[in-house]
Specification:
It is a single chain. This protein is mainly α. The chain has helices at 3-13, 30-40, 47-53, 69-97, 99-122, 126-155, 160-189, 227-231, 251-270, 305-308, 312-332, 335-343, 353-381, 383-408, 414-446, 451-458, 460-489, 494-501, 508-513, 519-525, 539-557; strands spanning 195-197, 204-207, 210-215, 218-225, 240-243, 302-303, 567-568. The protein has a single domain (22-190, 248-279, 302-491, 530-564), classed as Growth Hormone, Chain: A (Up-down Bundle). The protein has 21 helices and 7 strands. Helix 4 (69-97) packs antiparallel against helix 17. The longest helix is centred in the last third of the chain and has 33 residues, at 414-446. The chain is globular and about 80 Å long.
Length: 570
């Protein structure tokens, strides 16, 4: 590339090249922001991938070589961690280079992350999925997330909450498109493994806890699928014995397709970004009087990004965002799995794989709508009151879920499913609302000039929550499962156990580790009066999340106006 072309390209990507001319319609800016956030918001539909990735080799059931649930959920955590880290790093850079450059790089990272991750799936290398989707893709999430926020807040100083809501609305709504798209792509490319017959027709034996079959004189590793295993698949087939490594979950092809689509859409959207001239104001609007805004914690002054992180208000908002996100993200990461486990035993005819996928879709609908509605409401009642509502209502709703789960474990009444649906959807509106309201809260406290950079640094709270939420729910769920397996195994007839799994009950831990024994398979041979404990696997998690919201409420009530010593003139 010659020097002239290089200079021309630099000018094209520069911040000065995207300053809007007088008379530019500011309503042309939100579509680009929403388009980018719809693409990166597909991360909220990650739970669609959970079950297929834990069966990548076995397909119809987890095999001994398949990744465990905790490892798969942690990919989502890594992506959120790098979202926050990239946003914190890019926030100040964004103020220098402008949203077009940042948006272009976001497209490259998010689309490329899917493609790198697909290689990891193809060759069964978990670290490549972590690196591709988690690290590279996570950076794309962070870059794509911050690029529109400060831009829209500057275009809409008269409606900061609504502007932030529009900017971030697409992120919450990404799964509306992604959940059914991912499910359809997986179903389209999926193939059942080779069927060897039902359990009684195949000569099965165990080695080191793994299951094998002898076929034409050859030893073949197999999985034994149950009715519940087959019910969670997009493809239908008979329960029984299947050869490991002979089918396809369809996730590899889904990753490739999504990576290409997201790159193209985000690239086109980033090219249409425009920013207002310095000191631009909407026609007919005047900034609010400082004294009248005192009670709402709104300032017309500015706090530099480097000074903002020295204030107690920055860390108060950091804690609030972290705990609000931890509570919500813990549930979002396992949403599809959770609703099946809570209601699958007594309402299996209703809570099917398709129903669970729709549930993930509806999470996105309420997450997205909450971002716009709550952020807009905060323009009228104030950010502090809005956050107090989030924490009080969230505390009550999280405590209600264990009560619902207990009833769901012993009842076939649909009312408990309805209560669960309503409770969680309200939670997700407030989860999304918290994200959309925080940029306006920051602009109120620190001014709008550096809000993009300050917001980026505050998103390290999201990184922390991205680890804390999924780790908590995975650890607490796994502890509950292990406890339940031990309790159920103690009730099972040892002879029946050995006939079912090919080894004595004394080898329980080894069989669990090899994925030959699972809670659902134990329930099948448990005494008839045994209550299935699966619906209560998330109760401890819900109590923990309620406690976090109670702490966040106290922190929010302590927020005051920033000390004037931190202000400076732009």
């Amino acid at each position: 590339m010659n020097k002239a072309n290089s200079n021309s390209l630099a000018r094209f990507f520069s911040k000065n090249s995207i300053v809007a001319k007088p008379g530019f319609n500011r309503w042309l800016v939100p579509p680009a922001s929403i388009a980018i956030h719809l693409c990166i918001g597909s991360v909220y539909a990650w739970s669609i991938f959970n079950i297929p990735l834990t069966r990548e080799l076995g397909v119809v059931a987890p095999s001994s070589g398949d990744w465990d649930f905790k490892s798969v959920v942690s990919i989502f955590s890594v992506a959120i961690v790098f979202l926050g880290l990239a946003a914190a790093t890019a926030g100040k850079w964004l103020e220098k280079v402008g949203p077009r450059t940042v948006g272009m790089l976001a497209a490259l990272c998010w689309g490329g992350g899917f493609l790198i991750g697909s290689i990891g799936i193809k060759y069964h290398q978990l670290w490549l999925i972590y690196f591709g989707y988690g690290v590279i893709g996570g950076c794309g999430l962070g870059l794509g997330y911050v690029s529109p926020v400060s831009t829209l807040i500057r275009w809409f100083p008269d409606r900061r909450g609504m502007a932030a809501g529009m900017a971030i609305m697409g992120f919450g709504g990404g799964a509306i498109i992604a959940a059914p798209l991912k499910s359809k792509l997986i179903a389209h490319f999926a193939e059942l493994p080779k069927y060897l017959g039902n359990v009684n027709e195949v000569n099965l034996f165990n080695e080191a806890g793994k299951r094998f079959a002898e076929i034409a004189g050859k030893k073949v590793e197999v999985v034994v699928s149950s009715v519940s295993d087959m019910a969670s698949l997009p493809l239908k087939g008979p329960e029984g014995v299947y050869a490991v490594g002979t089918g396809n979950t369809g996730v590899f092809e889904a990753f490739v397709t999504l990576g290409i689509v997201y790159f193209v859409v985000m690239l086109l959207a980033s090219l249409s970004y425009k920013i207002p001239e310095l000191n631009w104001k909407p026609k007919g609007w005047t900034p609010p009087d400082e004294k009248k805004s005192e009670k709402k914690l709104i300032t017309s002054k500015s706090v530099h990004i480097d000074k903002a992180i020295r204030t107690p208000q920055f860390y108060q908002l950091w804690i609030m965002l972290c705990f609000n996100v931890t509570a919500g993200i813990a549930v979002i990461g396992v949403a599809k799995t959770m609703i099946i486990e809570i209601f699958g035993s007594n309402l299996s005819s209703v809570v099917t794989a398709s129903f669970a996928a729709t549930y993930v879709l509806m999470i996105s609908v309420f997450n997205m709508s909450g971002r716009f509605i709550w952020a807009s409401v905060s323009d009228y009642i104030g950010r502090k009151r809005t956050y107090s509502i989030f924490f009080i209502m969230g505390f009550i709703l999280y405590l209600s879920i264990p009560i619902i789960a207990i009833q769901a474990g012993t009842s076939t009444n649909l009312i408990w499913l309805i209560f669960f649906y309503i409770s969680t959807m309200i939670i997700f509106t407030m989860y999304g609302g918290g994200f959309a309201t925080i940029p306006a809260y920051l602009a109120d406290l620190f001014g709008s000039f550096h809000v993009g950079g300050i917001h980026g640094r505050l998103l390290t709270a999201w990184s922390t929550a991205g680890i804390l939420g999924p780790v908590l729910i995975s650890y607490l769920r796994e502890s509950s499962i292990n406890k339940a397996i031990a309790e159920i195994a103690a009730k099972v007839d040892p002879v029946v156990f050995q006939n079912k799994f090919g080894e004595p009950i004394s080898q329980l831990n080894k069989l669990v580790e090899a994925k030959t024994v699972s809670l659902s398979k134990l329930i099948e041979i448990a005494p008839p009066e045994t209550v299935d404990p699966t619906s209560g696997l998330y109760n401890t998690t819900m109590y923990t999340m309620a406690a976090l919201l109670a702490i966040a409420l106290i922190v929010n009530l302590l927020v005051k106006k920033v000390n004037s010593k931190y202000y400076h003139e732009e």
